[in-house]
Design brief:
- By secondary structure, the chain is an alpha+beta fold.
- Among the domains are: 50-98; 101-185, Ubiquitin-like (UB roll); 216-248, no CATH class.
- It has helices at 45-96, 123-130, 132-135, 182-195, 235-241, and strands spanning 101-107, 110-116, 121-122, 140-144, 164-165, 173-179.
- A hairpin with a 2-residue loop joins strand 1 and strand 2 (110-116).
- The protein is elongated and about 110 Å long.
- Residues 13-53 have a biased composition (Low complexity).
- Residues 1-83 are annotated as: Disordered.
- Residues 55-83 have a biased composition (Basic and acidic residues).
Length: 252
């Protein structure tokens, strides 16, 4: 058999044609042919009316609950105010019974009783019985609510004017102190003014001063705010000690 002739390299055999591409599959989530794309059907009038009625009922229920809560809080406040007023009236009645009577004044070995009127006693009455100015001419007489220890600062009962002791309570015991040094007496008077700050005004009810910032009982006017008062339960007694007029406390 004769040898096979060589092919011309410039004319290589054609490759077989590629098979036809398959038709692209439909994309996931693609809408089916003929699917509706229009807006959803609107809610029926009956459904709208039911929703509106439900909302209205909810609103009425919330308003009723709020009104009931407000009424309950108002009743609680009224009851608290009533109890506070009754307690204040009872305390004022108790203090009124202590305005007149006898107090015990201690001095050295002595412990005599003295009559007070309207919570008041004078230094002259004490001196008349104890004869202090006879022994110490020109002396100054003061009262304290306790027996002071050695070196302890003396805090005296309010005097208005000097020599007239205010705020005494029947049945109580007080201690008498005598000052002979005029210079020390000046310092004692200044200390008393500082302790019993303010002045009695308005017919004796006391100067409420800046009660929004500090207790006014020491000014002769019982506090009206328990958050400010230093001693709320004894506010009336403390105001009386400061020279306030208890007759006028009923409005506080």
């Amino acid at each position: 058999m004769p040898p096979r002739a060589k092919r011309n390299p410039s004319n290589p055999p054609k490759a077989a044609a590629a098979p036809p591409k398959a038709k692209a599959a439909a994309a996931p989530g693609a809408k089916a042919r003929g699917a509706s794309t229009g807006p959803a059907k609107a809610a029926s009038p009956a459904a709208k009316a039911a929703a509106a009625a439900e909302a209205e009922e909810k609103r009425k229920a919330e308003e009723a609950a709020a009104a009931a809560k407000e009424a309950e809080e108002a009743a609680a406040r009224a009851e608290a105010e009533k109890e506070q007023k009754e307690a204040a009236e009872a305390e004022l009645k108790r203090l009124a019974a202590l305005a007149n009577g006898e107090v015990t004044i201690k001095y050295s070995m002595y412990a005599e009783k003295f009559k007070i009127e309207n919570h008041t006693l004078t230094a002259a009455a004490v001196d008349e019985l104890y004869c202090l100015s006879d022994i110490m001419p020109g002396c100054f007489i003061h009262l304290g609510e306790k027996e002071f220890g050695y070196g302890e600062e003396h805090a005296y009962i309010k005097e208005d004017p000097p020599g007239s002791f205010r705020g005494l309570m029947s049945g109580e015991t007080y201690w008498c102190y005598v000052q002979q040094d005029p210079e020390q007496e000046k310092r004692d008077q200044e200390a008393m003014k500082h302790r019993w700050a303010g002045q009695v005004v308005g017919g004796g009810v006391g100067d409420r001063g800046s009660e929004g910032e500090t207790c006014s009982c020491g000014w002769g006017a019982p506090c009206t705010n328990p958050m400010i008062c230093k001693d709320w339960d004894n506010r009336f007694a403390n105001a009386i000690k400061a020279g306030g007029n208890p007759i006028l406390f009923t409005n506080t």
